[in-house]
Design goal:
275 residues, three-stranded antiparallel beta sheet, 2 domains, mainly alpha, Alpha-1,2-Mannosidase, single chain, 10 helices, 3 strands
């Protein structure tokens, strides 16, 4: 069995084999059918399979999985309503997305809520879907997700972030800040903004149009993240290989930035155990 066949077999095991356009991804667990972290990587995996094989079914599976996540994790735990009164089918992320944990909302690891670093993975998945499908709707959804959640995850003085919020984003469930959250956020925000610039032909705009466009497309959130990153990146260090792996991954998107250079250097120490 070649690598692509093995890859496809793993995805079939996790999500179920594709049969027709009526296919729906297999539930993560009966008690909580979707899980944001797993499904973000699931979308990326289907997109990779599509790129490698040119089989349109994989692109369709990525699309269906995205819709399922929005229809389940974009709603309350009982599925009765969306997480925000202004969320709609066309704009499903105005209230963010639940994690999909088995237990009710709370600070515990098995308790539901909203995780910033899970939401950034979903932003990335939406961005990749936009690029590969050439449908800007998905990138716009990523931008709308940032605008919905960014300030909610920040302290009142805007000097720090919280890594876990309540399902309705009204309060922090954990007061600490994720070690990579600011770097993760800045990187994903820039990716989304740069992609939208290409879709909207930003370079053809005059200066006034560019200024107006940027205000509507993440400039406030990016400028804020830059401030947070500026006072954190020199002190970043980790001995954890999982943390280091993500830091190394984040560092390759904008390698010319000082924070990316520091992430690359610091993350290398976490892999010494494997050498």
């Amino acid at each position: 069995m070649d690598k692509i066949c093995k890859f496809e077999a793993v995805m079939d095991h996790v999500y179920g084999k594709y049969s027709s356009s009526s296919w729906r991804p297999k539930a993560f667990k009966k008690s909580h059918p979707r899980y944001l972290w797993t499904d973000a990587f699931g979308v990326c995996n289907y997109l990779t399979l599509f790129q490698k094989t040119k089989n349109e079914n994989f692109l369709k599976q990525a699309e269906i999985l995205i819709n399922e996540v929005h229809n389940i994790l974009g709603k309350t735990r009982d599925g009765s309503k969306r997480l925000n009164n202004i969320s709609t089918e066309d704009h499903p992320l105005n209230g963010g997305l639940r994690i999909g944990k088995p237990d009710s909302e709370g600070a515990g690891m098995s308790s539901d809520g909203q995780y910033f670093h899970y939401l950034t993975k979903w932003m990335f998945a939406l961005n990749r879907m936009a690029l590969i499908s050439k449908n800007e709707k998905y990138n716009k959804w990523g931008i709308e997700l940032v605008q919905a959640i960014h300030w909610k995850f920040c302290s009142k003085d805007k000097q720090r972030m919280f890594w876990k919020m309540s399902i309705d984003l009204s309060k922090a469930l954990v007061n600490s800040e994720g070690g990579l959250d600011t770097f993760d956020g800045l990187t994903m925000y820039l990716i989304l903004q740069n992609t939208q610039k290409n879709f909207d032909k930003f370079e053809n705009m005059n200066q006034e149009q560019k200024s107006d466009w940027e205000e509507k497309n993440l400039k406030p959130e990016i400028e804020h993240m830059k401030l947070l990153v500026a006072v954190r990146y020199k002190g970043y260090s980790t001995n954890d290989s999982l943390d280091g792996g993500e830091a190394l991954w984040l560092s390759h998107f904008f390698p010319e930035f000082d924070y990316a250079k520091q992430l690359k250097i610091s993350s290398s120490f976490s892999f010494r155990i494997f050498v």
